[in-house]
Amino acid sequence: MSDPREKSREETRLFGLAPRYWLIVLAALIVFVAVLAFGVTALLVDIFEKKQEARDPFFRVVELTDDTTDPAVWGKNFPQQYDAYLRTVDMQRTRYGGSEAMPRTPTDVDPRSVVAQSKLEEDPRLKAMWAGYAFAKDFREERGHAYMLEDQTFTERQRVVQQPGTCVHCHASVYTAYKRLGNGDLFKGFEALNKMKYQDARKEVEHPVACIDCHDPKTMQLRITRPAFIEGIRAAKAAEGIEDYDVNAAATRQEMRAYVCAQCHVEYYFKGEEKRLVYPWSKGLKADEILAYYDETGFKDWTHARTGAACLKAQHPEFETWSQGVHSRAGVACADCHMPYERVGAVKISDHHVRSPLLNIAHACQTCHRVPEDELRSRAETIQGRNFEMRNRTMDALTELIGDIEKAKAGGADDERLAAPRDFQRKAQFLMDFVEAENSMGFHASQESARVMNESLDLVRKGQLALRD
Ligand code: HEC
Ligand code: HEC
Ligand code: HEC
Ligand code: HEC
Ligand code: HEC
């Protein structure tokens, strides 16, 4: 006979399990669900983190704000970019570029023990071209970004004339200084600093170009911080028929990879009593369009000491020249060649050691051109060699025109008689200087550089003819 209690136990079995096992099953179930939940959460977290990483691949050690100027602080979050940035102190020559370390004895007024080589010593004809201007005193090869502030502070050009605060726009991390002096308004700060004496403006800045000048501290996206470029590119776009261009809102990422450099590597002048920094692009970016702008506004940098011509000094028009070349046309930006990607472990980072790409052909060129390194260097140097030859011939011709005008002046020719030859000198010299001052020795746009020199040579010829009749 079966025990009735057995029966009741029998009935209370669940899925054939006696009640004493229920607890074990329940516990196992709870553990299972917990493990499952943990697994799913971990997976979700992982996916989320990967997504975050793709959007924002940075591990933050310190909080960066829109007032963090010191690049060493940014370097805590981005050690690789910072280390490369510091290497811009390196000095290494290439055939036509780079820079050579020249030892010098420090003095009280200039404590530098190493400077870049003098361009005036390399080519004394430059002194004839700039007679009467500060550039005829001291003009050197440019070197790495690490030196920009000290080279500007101690150039002899500071001692022959009183320079304005405007100079620091392109030689220092000036973004927070502008905001501070403008009470939060970048443009007001810009205007305040422009008007100062250089020595006073210099006290407002501390670092060469730094992370904050090119990056938004929250997103690390590229951004434009320089008022003169914001205004200049708006004028250039208006010349193309695009009104009210707002660079930070409208530029594509690839455009930004050139524009951040174009904040400084451009032709410029100081406008009016306020010494406002202006990029003269309202007629376009080409050398002759810029010359037409200066002719229309009647601007001159100085009066030539030997001929009396109202002269212009062209300065580092890398952006304008690049914009006329085949690489720009193909969408290749400054950063593609001067800050190429390199692989570090699983990530691709941009090489912040900004320098001559010919010192880094493997990363700078061979990603696009599957050609041996020596062949690529040779192609670049062939372009540069031809440009150098044209430059020398044009420079000789210009030097002759300067000599001819000087002779006519000494022989009693009056201002009226000299007006046309002087104007030809002004124009020929600016175009010649536009190619000379551009730092790629023709590489950025070889055909355009040749065209501009050809125009210069023609103006020299017309100047000499004008002296004859
Ligand atoms: C297709 C590649 C390429 C692009 C794009 C490019 N450059 Fe260059 N750049 C070069 C080469 C090559 C040289 C010559 C370097 C040399 O002679 O050592 C050069 C030279 C220079 C120099 C002088 C460097 C030195 O060491 O003397 C500066 C400054 C410069 N470029 C700035 C710019 C800026 C600014 C832009 C964008 C507006 C730009 N480059 C776009 C390839 C490029
Ligand atoms: C629009 C930006 C800009 C402004 C404004 C500017 N610079 Fe520069 N400067 C540059 C760039 C870019 C270079 C590097 C290319 C070169 O040397 O051609 C440079 C190079 C230099 C150098 C090193 C090479 C040399 O010429 O001996 C000195 C010194 C210098 N600048 C002084 C000054 C002084 C002084 C002022 C004010 C009168 C000034 N800069 C204003 C952009 C600028
Ligand atoms: C705030 C202004 C500023 C910005 C922005 C800037 N540069 Fe420069 N750059 C300079 C000055 C000034 C020098 C010359 C420093 C000196 O000679 O002391 C220079 C020098 C250089 C050199 C010569 C380096 C060498 O070793 O000879 C190269 C190449 C260069 N810049 C490329 C670039 C590129 C590419 C960008 C954009 C990614 C850029 N620069 C952004 C002002 C600037
Ligand atoms: C003259 C402008 C300039 C300065 C100064 C500058 N960067 Fe950059 N940086 C760039 C450019 C251009 C890129 C490429 C961005 C792109 O392709 O969208 C970049 C990219 C980056 C990135 C994204 C990852 C990568 O490497 O491509 C980080 C992080 C970064 N920079 C950190 C820094 C830090 C830290 C400093 C200061 C030590 C600094 N940058 C200074 C121009 C600059
Ligand atoms: C992001 C890609 C890219 C990079 C980086 C690049 N190039 Fe180019 N290069 C091009 C393209 C695209 C053309 C145009 C070719 C065409 O459309 O047929 C070109 C054209 C040229 C030409 C022929 C045009 C001329 O000016 O005579 C030379 C030479 C050249 N590149 C050399 C170089 C060198 C040297 C470097 C490195 C400093 C370099 N390129 C970096 C893409 C690149």
Can you summarize this structure?
This protein has helices at about 5-10, 20-55, 70-75, 80-85, 120, 125-130, 150-155, 155-160, 175-180, 185-195, 200, 210-215, 225-240, 245-250, 255-260, 285-295, 320, 325-330, 335-340, 360-365, 375-410, 415-435, 445-469; strands at about 100-105, 115, 270, 275-280, 300-305, 310, 340-345, 345-350. It has about 475 residues and is mainly alpha-helical.
Architecture overview:
Residues 7-11 have low confidence and may be disordered. This protein has a domain at 71-373: Flavocytochrome C3, Chain A (Flavocytochrome C3, Chain A, domain 2). By secondary structure, it is mainly alpha-helical. Helix 3 (71-77) packs across helix 4 (79-86). The strands form 4 sheets. It has a two-stranded antiparallel ribbon. A two-stranded antiparallel sheet has the order 3-4. Strands 5-6 form a two-stranded antiparallel sheet. The relative contact order is 0.09. Strand 5 (302-303) and strand 6 (310-311) form a beta hairpin. It has helices spanning 4-11, 19-55, 71-77, 79-86, 119-122, 125-129, 148-154, 157-160, 175-181, 186-195, 198-202, 211-214, 227-239, 247-250, 253-262, 287-297, 318-322, 326-329, 334-338, 361-364, 373-410, 415-437, 446-468; strands at residues 101-103, 114-116, 269-271, 276-278, 302-303, 310-311, 341-344, 347-350.
Please give the structural blueprint.
Elements: H1 4-11, H2 19-55, H3 71-77, H4 79-86, E1 101-103, E2 114-116, H5 119-122, H6 125-129, H7 148-154, H8 157-160, H9 175-181, H10 186-195, H11 198-202, H12 211-214, H13 227-239, H14 247-250, H15 253-262, E3 269-271, E4 276-278, H16 287-297, E5 302-303, E6 310-311, H17 318-322, H18 326-329, H19 334-338, E7 341-344, E8 347-350, H20 361-364, H21 373-410, H22 415-437, H23 446-468
Antiparallel strand pairs: 1-2, 3-4, 5-6, 7-8
Helix pairs in contact: 3-4, 9-10, 21-22, 21-23, 22-23
Bound molecules: heme C (5 copies).
